[in-house]
Amino acid sequence: MTGHTDGTSIVVGVDGSEPSMAALRWAAEQATALHTDLVAVHAWEPAANGHAPYAPAPAGPTLTQERERAVQILAATVREALGPLTGDAVLRIVAEGPPARVLLQHARGALLLALGRKAHGNFGLPSVGPVGRECLRHATVPVVTVPIADRSQKSAEAANSPSLTGSRAS
Fold first, then answer.
1. What one-character-per-residue DSSP string does 23-65 give?
2. Crossing angle for the helix pair 130-138 and 99-107, to the nearest 10 degrees
3. pLDDT tens-digit profile of 126-163?
4. Please, are residues 112 and 143 in contact by the beta-carbon 8 Å criterion?
5. Whether the Cβ atoms of residue 132 and residue 125 lie closer than 8 Å to each other
6. Above 90 in pLDDT, residue 41?
7. What would the mean pLDDT of 103-112 be, rounded to a whole number?
8. Strand, coil or helix: what is 156?
9. DSSP state letter for 134
10. Is 0.85 surpassed by the pTM of this model?
11. Around Cβ 47, how many Cβ atoms within 10 Å?
12. Would the N or C end of the chain have less CB density within 10 A of its end CB?
């Protein structure tokens, strides 16, 4: 797949982070509910060596090794977020290029683009990073930013749940 989707898929940006796993889980639930395809996209860029063109090449990963690492990151993230039995349920795309550009290209024509974000930024506002901001500015489809679960809130809810308090011996 090198661009447009067919209008019946949900595209999710995956970079291996906890927020991207939250977005992947949310997108998988939506894709199931809507009976649509799920497309996980991982963008990667070659590591810049920062040396002059005439300087000897530093010892580092080759482009092939970098691409293989990107494939591994996507596979591991899908497996960790959705479990080992996802099989062909998720179309996985690894593309070289700036993340926002790659995501916008693959989301063109999709139902929506899902991105992860931290639960809160400064002043309690949603934390959207530079890739998310760029996607929000230029997307031609709806963009959903999915926050990671607030662990402190979940543990407080679990401690106060009726199943836990009701199971104590009198």
1. HHHHHHHHHHHHT-EEEEEEEE-PPP----TTSPPPS---HHH
2. 40
3. 678 899 999 999 999 999 999 987 655 444 444 444 44
4. yes
5. no
6. yes
7. 97
8. helix
9. H
10. no
11. 11
12. C
